[in-house]
Amino acid sequence: MSRLRFPLLISLSLLAACGGGDDDCGVGGAPSVGLVAKSAAAPATLTFGGLHAGLNNDCPAADAPSGVISLTLQGTQTDGTGNVTLCIARPDLLAERAQALGHDQAGVAVRLVDVNGTANNCSFAIDVAQPVTGTVTTSGLCGDGGDPAGFALVVDGALHLQRTCNTVVDSLDVTLRGRVAVQADQAR
Q1: What Å distances lie between residue 27 and 3, 130, 177, 178, CA to CA?
Q2: How far are the Cα atoms of 72, 73, 90 from residue 62, in angstroms, in the given order?
Q3: Tens-digit pLDDT string for the chain (188 aa)
């Protein structure tokens, strides 16, 4: 019986040293693919996944407390050849509550830097002349997005994509929605 207790004590000690396995951090079952840009007016759907986050300080906030570094998220189109990029100026605030989604410009909480892709023999790119609206929330975000457990990102937004099919160019109203896992880049 004493042989069983010793390994159990070591196991419990190791768990305590690791912080007890905080269940609040991590992707929480969010799928690796699930961020979808879709037009109701045209058969155009771009699906993104494989999102990675890096504390790169690409869009620092002037009002950020010391030690808070802006977070860049990048993912790839899974049904074409595009990508999506977002920059979160204050990931500490995003961990607490929903933040506004907008264009890549100073003062926007979550900046939609780029959305582009291909579908139905056409190419799509964000139309920067049109507004971007919506909200972004997270669950399981720890360490301002740098925690190795990652987190789940939830986007509910609207934007315009410029569609190019051969020589015809137009603009489509598109929703950008979904819940998707984000993995933290470990090389900082």
Answers
A1: 37, 32, 17, 14
A2: 17, 20, 10
A3: 444 443 433 333 333 333 333 458 999 999 999 999 999 888 889 999 999 999 999 999 999 999 999 999 999 999 999 999 999 999 999 999 999 999 988 789 999 999 999 999 999 999 999 999 999 999 999 999 999 999 999 999 999 999 999 999 999 999 999 999 999 986 54
| Rg, the chain, Cα only | 20
3-state secondary structure of 95: coil
By C-alpha distance, which of 118, 51, 63 is closest to 87? Answer: 51
The pTM (predicted TM-score) of the whole model is 0.85
Whether the Cβ atoms of residue 176 and residue 161 lie closer than 8 Å to each other: no
